[in-house]
Design brief:
Elements lengths: L13 H16 L2 E4 L2 E4 L2 E3 L4 H7 L14 E10 L31 E7 L1 H14 L14 E6 L3 E13 L2 H12 L9 E6 L2 E7 L4 E4 L11 E13 L12 E4 L10 H4 L16
């Protein structure tokens, strides 16, 4: 029974980068703060969601009057920039049909970057056996130069700078200090300001701005409740593969190299001389 070959790669889209950012904040940072109910996790919300959805999705985020409960962390995507300066590791401008310059059928596949290559065992062994049968008088095993490789190719990634704005809101200064301390220690080094975020098997590099801008209404003497707010800017060097649903090309191309060219001939149709000899070493007639 032949094995079924499966090649699976999840698409990297702008939504994938957003999910990686949110997952990192919610699960990796996992900020906690002291509240009236003890040491609790600080919820993370995505600001693009409608207010009606937020209320129905998590009723614990708001009180009976519909006001958000603090502390809370909100994240919003501010900008997307395709910057030639931050071009990533693979920045060559390769045409989509570079591997298939004369084949119009396969030129739309769009695979130009090889990510994996392995030997196709069955076809390579067939060529090796054919070489042995053609040289039966050879006692030593000859080297097989006809090796069939199976390559997996994907499109060249397009790198993007995606900027996110994080806003931290708390009721007390103690809560703000506890939450900010978590971000300051991501990563735990004064020489590095980048972390790795991931989603669906794709990894992206995120750079944290060292300026934690803070403001509050403490100086405003009035009847309003005290609140503290800090904002953090995070720039993610992400990449996308293709155009998602708008792309008519597959994300993965499987290709085999050419090792031999054979031209079949029909002898009876072309009238060639029959190669089979009779007992007098003469060609037999049919």
């Amino acid at each position: 029974m032949s094995k079924i070959k499966e090649y699976e790669i999840m698409p990297s889209t702008i939504e994938t980068i957003d999910r990686a950012m949110f997952t990192w904040l919610d699960e990796n940072v996992n900020a906690h703060a002291t509240t009236n109910k003890g040491w609790n996790k600080v919820p993370v919300i995505w600001l693009s969601a409608e207010r009606a959805f937020q209320i129905k999705n998590d009723k614990e985020l708001r009180d009976s009057t519909g006001v958000l409960k603090l502390p809370i962390i909100s994240v919003e995507k501010q900008s997307i920039v395709k910057d030639p300066v931050d071009k990533g590791g693979h920045y060559a401008a390769l045409p989509e049909n570079i591997n298939y310059p004369t084949d119009k059928l396969t030129s739309v596949r769009g695979g130009v970057r090889e990510v994996n290559r392995r030997i196709e065992q069955k076809k390579t062994s067939d060529f090796a056996n054919e070489n042995i049968n053609a040289n039966k008088n050879v006692t030593e095993r000859t080297k097989n130069n006809k090796v069939v490789y199976e390559s997996v190719l994907i499109p060249i990634p397009v790198y993007l700078n995606v900027v996110y704005s994080l806003v931290i809101k708390t009721d007390y200064l103690q809560q703000m200090n506890e939450i900010i301390s978590v971000f300051v220690n991501k990563p735990n080094s004064s020489a590095i300001n980048s972390v790795v975020i991931e989603a669906d098997g794709h990894t992206y590099e995120a750079f944290l701005d060292g300026n934690y801008r803070q403001k509050s209404n403490v100086g405003n003497i009035g009847e309003s409740e005290k609140s503290y707010e800090s904002s953090i800017t995070i720039k993610v060097l992400g990449y996308i593969l293709g155009s998602g649903s708008n792309d008519d090309k597959p994300k993965v191309v499987v290709k085999q190299n050419t090792v031999d060219i054979k031209i079949s001939r029909e002898r009876s149709a072309l009238g060639d001389i029959n190669p089979y000899l009779n007992k007098d070493k003469d060609y037999r007639e049919f």
